[in-house]
Structure formats: structure tokens, C-alpha cells
Amino acid sequence: CVEAFKEAKAAGFRVGTNSTFFNNDSPQDVIDILTFLNDDLKVDAIQLSPGYAYEKAPDQEHFLGVQETREMFSKVFAEGRRKKWRLNHSPVFLDFLEGKRELACTAWGIPSYSLFGWQKPCYLMSDGYVGSYKELTETTDWDKYGRGKDPRCANCMAHCGYETSAVLATMGSLKEQIRAVRM
User: Which residues pair with 49 in a beta bridge?
Assistant: First the structure.
């Protein structure tokens, strides 16, 4: 995989990663991985997400809870470290991971499509499939999903549901827009 990254970069391709972290990863492990991806592999866009215990996941014991996620990312991002990595996230989402800000889930913002159709409400939950994006958006009761609404969402802080919320919060605030540009 590392060699493939290097070859893709050498050929002029943009390379992005998506790393999920679990409760058996220490903050130092996360720092080391992000630094390796950023400094050694020169990945162009790094996405990260706390592991979330969705229903179909085979290993339920290593997922992070909300408090564990906040504690981990507060340590990972301490001392201004988050600014040194090429993270492909808004500052508002990173604040959310650290527990500095609350956000509601916006699952419709990053929908999932497969051979079965559009997955309701997000790729982490299996409440059925529909045939069109229009049907997904018009027939899904979005207000019943998210932390505090559906028990399956209790520990979810995944970017698929919360980065859209963070972008909407950014676009609704001149201060956050300026902050995002400076990042």
C-alpha cells in the first residue's frame, strides 16, 4: 500500500486516505500515523474518523464512545498539531471530535449507493434501500436519527454524518468561513 501511494504521487496523482481509529489506538499511535501519512507519504488529503459500533460491524468491542473520542482527539490535536497535518476536514468538525462543539447528524449529506439502491439513512445503518436519491430524501424521517434520537446512533461521531453538519455551520458563519480559509 505504501509503495502504491508513492507510485501514485510520483505519477502526479492526488492521494487521499481515510483512517478509522479505535479504543485500542493510543493518542500517540494516532499522532504517529497522521505524521507518517503527512510527512513521509505526503498524502494530499487525510480523513479520519472515530470507530463507531454500527450494527453490521464484526468487532463490537473496540469502538470508541463519545467521551473516549473527545479525550483521544483532544490529546491528538493538542499543542496545535492539527494544523500541521493536511486534514481533509473543516475546523468545525475537528472541534466536534475534540468535544469543543456539538453538532447534529446530517446523514443525507453523504448518502450511500450500492447495487441494492440508496441506503437508509446512512451507510452505517441498514434501515432499507430505496431506488432513487429523491425517494431517499423525501421518504426518510431524518429527524429520528442522530445521537439522542436513535439508540444505534449513541456513540456515532463519524464524518459521514457530522462533516456535512460542520460544513453547514461553517457556511452559516462568516467567522467560521474565515477560519476555514486560514486552515
Answer: 20
